[in-house]
Amino acid sequence: MPELPEVETIAAGVNAQVRGDTIQSVWVSSRKEPFKTPAAELQTGLVGRRILRVHRIGKHIVCDLGYGKRPPQRSQESPPEPPEAQWIVHLGMTGRLLVCDSGAPTAPHTHAVLTLASGRELRFVDPRRFGRLTLRPFAGEPGETSGFRGPGQEPLAITPDAFAKLFHGRHTPIKAALLNQKLLHGVGNIYADESLFRAGIRPRRLAWRLTRAELARLQSSLATVLQEAIALGGSSVSDYVDANGVRGFFQLEHRVYRRTGIPCLACGTPIRRILIGGRGTHYCPKCQR
Predict the structure, then answer these.
(1) Which residue of 73, 198, 214, 218 has the smallest Cβ count within 10 Å?
(2) Model-level pTM?
């Protein structure tokens, strides 16, 4: 499943190419699974909208949508145009969000095609159909922030105190806690393993037993790993490609993930693989304690 760096890379790539464009028509497949919002409602709600911004929240790609016609020209001091609605894309296990020329061949398992005024198309492709497409209104009660927020805290913005509090009293392995999207949204198997290795913490350690110093080290390692992965376009270990269909390169920098039996790059001890919460977990038995 694409994790935070992969979703960030896709969102940034889509934003750079379609921001300001208007959705002229929408085609959807007959498969029901990808549509958290009913397909007919999705089509009606998207057509005529203008894409104000595409960004990431957790593992979700969020397209902020405005009115089809541009509002009167604003001065540089004016606040940005508020969204009217949001199209939310969750990629699931194998989902892709691609920007294509209208004449490009349509890939198998394409479930939605948004034709834009520029002539380009925004296509959602998902062979296993675990991804979800949702359209939601942005407006709420006056004075309230009503945009999509995601289930947990943002790993790249959380404060040290808030990070430490997430794990206080949690009698679960720290690896399982890192994967809990209600705590930190966006972190998955790859980056949990890699950040625990860099922090020198065994994945089976109970979260509540980690010292404040260890948690500070873990937060720093997690932020570093995520930022490095974003810079390299994410990890392509399965189906992941960016908005242009290009693979990422961070898999070349993995130190433990999927390196079972291979000598640790730091100490030479073979990397081990265990199961925690049903998830394959990779670690170095010497470097991590």
Answers:
(1) 73
(2) 0.92
Write the CATH number for 129: 3.20.190.10
| Active site (catalytic) residues | 2-3, 59, 279
Q: Which amino acid is it at 75?
A: S
Final residue in a domain of this structure, among 105, 137, 169: 137
Find the Cα–Cα–Cα–Cα dihedral 71, 73, 78, 82, rounded to 10°.
20
**Within this chain, do residues 90 and 8 fall inside the same structural domain, yes or no?**
yes
* Residue span of the structural domain in which 230 resides: 160-283
Which domain CATH number covers 188?
1.10.8.50
Tokens 């010292």, residue? 211
pLDDT averages per 10-residue partition of the chain, 289 residues: 95 97 97 95 96 97 85 58 93 96 95 97 96 88 67 96 96 98 96 98 98 98 98 92 94 97 98 96 98
Give the β-pairing of 60-66 and 110-116: unpaired
Cα–Cα distance for residue pair 68/216, rounded to 1 Å = 46
Helix 189-199, helix 212-231: angle, nearest 10 = 130
Query: How far is it, in rounded angstroms, from Cα 152 to Cα 135?
Result: 20
Of the candidates 87, 114, 112, the one whose C-alpha atom is nearest the C-alpha of residue 102 is: 114
